[in-house]
Every structure is written in structure tokens, then in C-alpha cells.
Amino acid sequence: MTTIRRFCCNDLLRFSSVNLDHLTETFNMSFYMTYLARWPDYFHVAQGPGNQIMGYIMGKVEGQGESWHGHVTAVTVAPEYRRQQLAKKLMNLLENVSDNIDKAYFVDLFVRASNAPAIKMYEKLGYVIYRRVLRYYSGEEDGLDMRKALSRDVEKKSIIPLKRPITPDELEYD
Amino acid sequence: MASKFGLAGGIPERKVRPIWDAIDSRQFKNALKHVTTLLAKYPNSPYVLALKALVLERMGKPEEAFSISLNAKDNLFVNDALSIDDLTLSTLQIVFQRIDRLDLATECYEHACGKFPNKMELMMGLFNCYVREYSFVKQQQTAIKMYKLAGEEKYLLWAVCSIQLQVLCGNGGDKLLVLAEGLLKKHAAAHSLHEPEAVMVYISILEQQAKFGDALEILSGKLGSLMMIEVDKLRMQGRLLAQAGDYTAAADIFQKILELCPDDWDCFLHYLGCLLEDGSIWSDEAVNDPVHPPKFISCKVSHLTDEQFDSRISIASAFIRKLQTDAFDNSIRCPYLAIIEIERRKHLRGKGNDDNLMDGIVQYFCRFGHLACFTSNVEMFFEVFTTDKKAELLEKLMTSNNRLSTPPTKTLGLSISLFKIKQQLLLGDMFKSSASDVEVSCVQMFEMYCKNLSLSKDFDPQESMHGEELLSITCNILVQLFWRTKNVGYLVEAIMVLEFGLSIRRYVPQYKILLLHLYCHFGALSVAHEWYKSLDIKNILMESMLHHILPQMLSSPLWAELNSLLKDYLKFMDDHFRESADLTYLAYHHKNYSKIVEFVQFKDRLQHSSQYLVARVETPILQLKQNADNIEEEEGILQRMKCGTDFLELSNEVGSKSLTLNEDLETRPWWTPTLEKNYLLGPFEGISYCPREILTKERETSLKRGIEKKSLLPRMIYLSIQSASSSIKEHVEVNGSVTPDITLELKILLERFAQFLGFSLGEAIEVVKGFSNGERSVVSDSNLIDWLNFTVFLNAWNLSSHELVHPDRNERKPIIWNILDSLLEKYILEKIRTTEPQLCSPWSDIQLLMQLVTEPLAWHGLVIQSCLRSCLPSNKKKKKSGSVYQSSSNLAHAITDSVQQLSLVLEDVIKWISEWNRRSEDENMEGILFLLRKDGHDDGPGRVFHILETFISSMNNAEVGDRIYHSLKSWSPADVARKIVRGKLKVLIEFSAICESKLKLLQSLKQKVAQL
Ligand SMILES: CC(C)(COP(=O)(O)OP(=O)(O)OC[C@H]1O[C@@H](n2cnc3c(N)ncnc32)[C@H](O)[C@@H]1OP(=O)(O)O)[C@@H](O)C(=O)NCCC(=O)NCCS
């Protein structure tokens, strides 16, 4: 049961129960504020009946030509609200913004290769593993680059998996 | 990149590029070499000078950088137009910003814009300077100029936002909004608007002036179509209609949103509010603190007639029923909760029917009772029931629970909810029921956890397990049992339960937070700190979460750990203040205008954070504590903090500031709902799971006073040292170097300090004098340190002031000094005598003991050092030999006495600490585990622990899975007990080291006095 609205600065002071999760990174301020200043439509928060923060999604849109795409930088839901389709709603929202407003070709994201629950979720939501990025996380853990094609990519070219893994310095965007 | 370098200052790009390359790759020495070469050729070029300054700054030479950049600036001003270009200016700007002289950067741009009034590039730079300086008026003026020049929507919006900032974050009056509106109106009429964010700002400007009709017109017109997210637009429309008082239309809009998003609870509340013509949600929104929004919905009794009310309610019910039947997805909860809310509104109107309300809750329970958020969803409805009805509801819930047949995970969830509900409904009952009844439910919870572990046996360790909450509940009950019985065994048991849980899965933040508070309470602060660190609290989380550990650390001897907590936190905040304006500029640049006010307000909010101010004050105090045993070092530190004058200023200002409280108190355990409160320290009162009384205003006032008082300390310490040294010099030096100012200032501060104790200075002095007769009724644990600090400073003042008439001039020691020494002695010895050196002794007394030694005693030590130093024949004074010795002989006696007395006290403390170490670790560990052994008798702690041990020894890996099996097999309660012991001893050992160092100081003073 949720109200989904744009994320605002004050939410940063209220999201501790979500961010205490060990898989959810607490970034520095300029990171959050850059996202807010540049892509406010890609940063949404879900709020529950007692006004508590249940989860949020942050992302952006970038790229040139056919790699113009939406990107999910973080999606996270507090443990007590999991498995209630919340992440799915947030993801759908971001996909809609990318698809309808920004006319992007696809949405992509990186996930820790060990984060089985999240990978399962993304697969359920229609994402495929596009490629593996070696030692993407602090030079240790591999990341999976997952993608989902949007309506503009009619032939679904953007999601044809790469044959070989790549290294972080081969990434087009960070 | 090439164009970036242009032909700044007439210097070819290829000559500059190596410098930038070197800077970018952080090869500053190399960069400097290149700059120096280039400078030989262009000695007066502002650009090259600016580059040199930049390199020097990056090399960590801010002073040199400053002087070179001033040089560059001067040349910029004298030179002709040739050298003024954006690259030179922006390079200088970077340097000035890095050395915190934004004003100089602004001057450069102002000068440049004066020379070239129509260059957009320069004006943009100037605008940016004003953004950095938060000069909203000048921002507005510059933006208007740019708008006139370029006619772009963007610059108009920059001006409009600058106006909005003046109104919302500056001291501009509301009338300015009319101006902003006029600008927008005119532009929109001629050119329309093209950015959705521009429309949003336009609407907010109108809304702020309560011109809701106009705002609605904009929204429904062509401009409104720019807003792409349909629901957002509808929400805005509904809000405006409601604020305009057109509730019927507003209700229609919210109905539409609910059809699109049937799970949007906020929207439902708005819908219902509009139907019942109750606008309180909107007006409260303005009043409430956005960081601590109310948990419960506010609504007022409707003014509608009975018929109207009934018909509106039935409209709402019908619509919600329809939403229920239409719902395609059975995870949608809002319509089911909405039915309950509608019943509640009826209740408030006096038309309620308890049975209907109960039915609604029971239904909701049957559908969603297994969810972790069930209890928090429905708790707001319990208030309408009488005690009897609550019992009835509970009965009904239990019956329906028994009838439900669900898969095991749901059954578990339902049982947990039921238990939580029971606690809520029977609030207070827990306290009436006997300790053993409470213990029974505690045992049940724990058993339920163990029994259900198998449900999660195949889970990825990343994933939350079923029933994790049970251990938090168990812990909470155990702590309550401790509170009732004061039997520390329950605390140890609670610790064991949580450690057990964390060994099963490492990542449960709730357990860690509970544990950290338990360890603090137990005195094992270093272990608490470890758990705090494992929460990985960084960046903005520090602002909301540091309160879990900071207060305890502030009074602890773990100085290194405290220092790094404070340093990290202040760095984060200061970095943000430094970069926030640049990020605001980014919002201007990307035309996300609505974020501009938001960013500035947020920065203001953090700047007024009470925790930030506390950290700023506590940081110097920590430094002073750390160096108090060496007066020269201490003086160096005081010099570096401008002898405490900055903090004095802070102290003067803080009263008139409004502070923000940004702590997330929701994450705190029930027994310490705010930083200032710890129920466990007081007698059992019967509160548990209470609504957290966040008395924000009250907290703000007391925090302010705390900061006001604390920030006097550095200055008072400084003045005390000065005062003490002039006490003797006045006999020595005839050239008038005694500074009456110091004595006077110290007196003024003493007056202020006395006020914090609730007295005038005269009265406070009398109180202190009364101490010598044993009259100490005004002193309590909460003001003990303040009284002693006051006495320390009073004594220091008395040394240079003649105001207090001394009947005892010829005695060995001034009377205040005497009183002070005996007070210190008395309280310190009292603490160690009443606190057995046992692992389970209450920690709060020890905390006070540590404060006594590290604060008043330390400051007093500085006064003694200062006195002694002025008695010692320094080289200079040797010329006037003889006089020093004679006139200081009284003082020397006083010092000798004092040193003697305090040494004995410290020796006692050190001896007392060593008592703690007498037993071996194993003995201590056994001692702790013994608290949990039942050995036949039935009451007291240990039942849960017994189940825990039995479970571990009897579990098998088929049942709980390999992972859990192995982690539990390698877990041992004895290790936990050892950890408690070590944690506590570590703190005491640190404290002992502090005492040793002070003792050493006193001994060296003794020797020096002997040489006199
Ligand atoms: C991953 C995460 C965001 C999922 O949030 P959520 O709100 O529980 O997910 P949803 O309820 O919307 O799940 C949608 C679907 O994804 C799948 N899914 C979600 N979590 C799953 C899990 N733990 N295991 C298996 N499948 C899962 C399911 O198919 C689910 O539908 P279902 O419940 O009807 O079967 C949440 O677990 C989380 O916050 N994790 C920590 C942060 C993180 O890892 N973020 C991702 C990396 S950026």
C-alpha cells in the first residue's frame, strides 16, 4: 500500500531503515543531488500508511543514438515490505518514463553476481543478462549488466547478449 | 578538450595543455615546473598566475596560493580588456573557492561583467558566483539581465527561482511573489512555457499566494499538458481544488487517481477528506516537519449535517467496495484498510459501530495479517476502542486465526502479528501481569523462532529469514524483565539471543542496533562501537543514525574512536556545505527548477542541525581533554581555536537560532526513545512499546541550552589558565601585563554559567561555599559535572580577582581551591566506593566517574599547571630573582597540597580499576554465564537461554540446513560472555591510562614545586 512520488532531499533523512540493508549503498551527497538535479523523474520513493519510507528507485537516462537508454542505479525495498510487488511497481515506473517520456531504446542495470534475489526479480521483470562485467564492484565482485528492451527497440537488438565478459574500463558509461 | 583552453590571456593552447594535463593526473610538481617556465615568459598574465595558484593550492599550500591568486586578481583589474576571459576567471574562481574566498571570485566576475556588460558567458559565471554565495537578490538581478539579453525561458526561471529563494530562504517578503508571477505571466503570454519544471514553479508561485484558481487554470490549460506523468498532474489538481475549497471536484479527481492506483493510501485519505469537506490534511502539511511527519492521520469532526455525512460516507463505501471487487491483484491492501478508516470516521462522528470496525480489522487480518507491516497498518485504529472492546477484538482475532488454514510461512507471520497486536491492545497489561507470565510469552516467541528456522533453511544468506522479528521481540521482553527486576541476567540473556540471531544471519540491522544499546548499557562500549561500525553508517546516514552511539561515546574514555566519529561526521557535513551550491547550480543548468529551493532549504536544514552543532562543540572539547596534561600543548590548541572566541560566538548565537532535529528516532529501542531518555536507569514505571513521545520543541530547547553551555567551555578554560598565571605575575611584573580584561571576562562567563545552574553568580558562589559545610542538596547526577566545572573556573577567577573578600588570605590555600579539591576527592571516591568492581555493576556511575576525571579534574589540573609555571623562575624572570619565590610561596603551598590530595585520589581510582582485573577472564566469563544458569530454581533469567542451548545441541542439519547448522555449531555463548568482559575492561583500561597520565603529571608538578 503505497504512494509513489518523487524523491526529495528530506527523504534522505528518513530512509535509514531502507538503507541499513547491507546490499543498499549509501552514496555521498553529491551523488544523490546530481541525480535529483538532473533526472528528478527517475528518482521515486514509495511511502506507506504511517508515512514511513518503504523503498525507492533512482536512475537516469543517457547514451547516444541507439544506446540512448534508461538506467537503474539503485532499487531497494525495506525488508518488511518485500515481496509485495513494490520493486516491480518502481521498476515499471522507471521503464514507463524511459519508454514514453524519454523514448529510450532500453533500460539497463548492474547487479552483483551474488545477489541472487535481485537477479531473480529482474529476470521475472523481463530483464536478460546482457553481459558480465568482471570485478565491477570495488574491483572484487563481478557485476551483471542486465537489460530490457523498450518499445522503440522494435527488433530487440539492444538485448542480444554479448559473448564474452568485459572489464569495467570497457564500459561506455559509469 | 581543445576548446576548453582557448586562447586565454593570449597564450597559445599548446603551452597550457601540459599544465592542465599534469594537474588532471595529480602530478603537481610537474605542473608547477611548467607553470614556472611559462610565468617567466608571461610574468603578469593573470591566467598563468591563476594556474600557479591552482597548482599550489592542490599541493597543499593555501597561503601561497592565496597570495598568488591575489596577484592574479590585481593584474586582472589593472590590465586592459585582453586578459579578461572566462577561462582565466573560472580558473581563479576554482582557487578562490578552494581557499574559501568566494567573495574574491565574485569581485573578479563583477569587474569583468562591468567591463563587458553584454557577454553572456561572463554573466553566467557571475550568476554562478552569487549562487555559491547564496546572494539571492543579486542572483535575481543578474538573471533578469541575462533574460533581457537572451530572452530565454531558462533565465527567466532563474530569476523567478531567485525570487522564490528570497521569500522562502531569505528575508524577502511575500510581495515579491507578485513580481515573479508577473514575469512568468508576461513571458508565458508571449512565448508560452516549454519545460514541465517551469510550469511546476509557476504553479507553486501561485499556490504560495493562495491563488488556487489561477493555478488550476494553468494546470488545465495548454501548459498543463507539459506535465507528462498523469498521476502527478492529477494529484496536483486535486490538491489545488481542495485548497480552493472545491471539495466536490477535488473528490472526483482523487477518485480518478484511485482508479488508476487503487493502492495509494495517501490518495484515499485525500479522497475521504474531500468528501467530508475536511481540509485539515492540507493545512497540517504546512505545519508538520517534513522529516518527522505524523504517523497518524489528522482529521477533524466534520461540519456536515447528519444526512450529508451519511450520504458521503455511503458514496465512499460504495466506491471502495468497487475498488475491492475490481482489484486484479490480491496484494492490494488500500481498499481493505480504507473500509476500516471509513468506520473510524463514523466513530469519530458518534455514529460508529464497534462491531463493524472490528470486522474490518478482522478481515484485514485474515487477508494481510501475515505481513510484517500489518500491525503498523492497523494500530491507529485501536485508539477508538475501550479496554473491554480491545479485549473483545483480540478474542476475535485469535478465533479467526485458529480458523485460518495457511501455509507455514503465513502461519508464522500471523502468529507474530497476533503477538504484536496483543501487546498493543493490552498495553499496560504486560505490566500488570506477573513477571513469570511475561516470561512465558517471551519463551514462546523464542521457541517459535527456533521451530521455524527450517522454513528458511534454503535461503540465500542475503535474504531476510522468516520470523526474524521474533528475536527482536524476545529481546524487548527480556529488557522489560530487566527493568522490572533489575536482574542483569536478563540483559545478558537478551544479548545472547541477539548474538545467536546474528550468527545465523549476519545482516540484521535491527539486532545490531538493539545490541549496540544493550552493550552500551552494560558498559561494554567498545563492543557497542564495533556493532555500530558493522552497520556501515556513512554519509547522510550519519545525520540520522549517529545518535545511536554518539552520546555514549562523548562521556567515554574511547577518545580515538570518538575522534574519528566526530571527524567523519563533520567532514561529511562540511563537504556538503561546500559543494551544495554547485549542485544547486546544476539544477539551474538542467532546468530542474523545482529542485532549487529544495536544495537550499535542505542545506539550511543541515546547517541548523542540532547534532552538527553538538559535534562542532564537542570536537574542541575532546581535543582539550586529550591534551590537558600538558599545558603548552593545550595552549597551542587553544590558540588554534582562537582562544575559544568562535565557540563563544556560537554560544551567543545558538539561542536565537532554530535548530533542526534530524535523528531517525524510530530506529531506537523502546527503552531509550530519545537520546536523553533511558527508562532502564529509573524505576520500573510501566511503559513499553509506548508511542514515542518526541517532544520536539522541548528537546530543541534543552539541546540549545546544552550547546550554549558547552560552547562556553573552551573560552573559560583559556581564561582560567590566563587568570591563574596572572595571579602570581601581578606580584612580579610591574609593567601592567596583568590583564584586568581577563578577570572581567571570566567573571561575565561565570555569570552565564551560573545561570545554566539556575543561580545568579552571587548565589552560585554561596552554594559553592556551602559545599564546605556539606551542604550539597542542589547537586544531582545530572548537574554534578557542571557544578564542578563551575567551581574550577570560579577558583581560577578567584586567583586573579580581588572581588571575593578572603578572610583566609594568609592560609595555605584559598578557600575555593580547598573546596574544589575536597569536592573532587569526595565525588570521585564516592563513586568508586559505591561501585563494586564487578562486571554487572551499573555503568552510569562509572560514566560519571570518568567524566569527573576527564573534565573538571583535567581543567583544574590546567589551572594548577598554570599557577606553577608562573611561580617558576623562568629565564626572563630570573633577572628579578628572589621576588618570585617569596611572593609565590603561599601558592606553592597550595599547589603542593592540591597535588598531594589529587594524587591520592587518582591512585585510589587506579587501584580500583586494577581490582576489576583481579579475576581471570575465564572466571569473569563464568560469572556472566552463571547469571543464566537456572540450577533448579524457576524464576529469574535463563529460561530462554536454556532453550537456546538445548536447540543448538539438538538441532540437525537436515532440519535447519547446512549453513545455519555450521554457523551455530561454531557459535559459543562463552565467546559472547568473553566479549562482554573484554569490552568492558577495554573501556576501563583506557580510563586507567588516562588516570595514570594525570598522576604522572601531578608527580612531575610535585617535583617542580619542590625545586622552588
Ligand atoms: C531486490 C528487491 C529490490 C526486491 O524488492 P521486492 O519489493 O521484494 O520485489 P517485488 O515484490 O516487486 O518482486 C517482484 C518479483 O520478483 C521476484 N522476486 C523478488 N524478490 C525475490 C526473491 N527474494 N527471491 C526470488 N524471487 C524474487 C518474484 O518473482 C517477485 O514476484 P512474486 O513475489 O509475485 O513471486 C529487494 O529484495 C531489496 O531491496 N533488496 C536489497 C537491495 C538490492 O539488492 N537491490 C538490487 C540491487 S540494485
From TrEMBL, chain A:
Transmembrane as a keyword of this entry, yes or no, is no
Write the record's keywords in alphabetical order, separated by commas: Acyltransferase, Transferase
Per the record's keyword annotation, is Repressor included, yes or no? no
InterPro entries reported for this sequence: Acyl_CoA_acyltransferase, GNAT_dom, NatB_acetyltransferase_subunit
What Pfam families has UniProt attached to this entry? Acetyltransf_1
What's one GO-annotated cellular component? NatB complex
Q: Its domain of life?
A: Eukaryota
For this protein, the parts annotated as crossing the membrane are: none
Q: Boundaries of each N-acetyltransferase domain copy?
A: 2-151
Query: A single Gene Ontology molecular function, please?
Result: protein-N-terminal amino-acid acetyltransferase activity
- Which family is this sequence assigned to? Belongs to the acetyltransferase family. ARD1 subfamily.
Its recorded name reads N-terminal acetyltransferase B complex catalytic subunit NAA20
Source species of the chain? Cicer arietinum
TrEMBL record, chain B:
**Name of the featured protein:** N-terminal acetyltransferase B complex auxiliary subunit NAA25
Annotated keywords: TPR repeat
The residues that cross the membrane are none
Judging by the UniProt lineage, the source's domain of life is Eukaryota
- InterPro entries assigned: NAA25_NatB_aux_su (IPR019183), TPR-like_helical_dom_sf (IPR011990), TPR_rpt (IPR019734)
Which residue ranges contain the repeat TPR?
Answer: 231-264
One Pfam assignment: NatB_MDM20
Q: Which organism is it from?
A: Cicer arietinum (Chickpea)
State if DNA-binding is listed as a keyword: no
Gene label: LOC101490821
A GO cellular component annotation here is: NatB complex
Q: Which family does it belong to?
A: Belongs to the MDM20/NAA25 family.
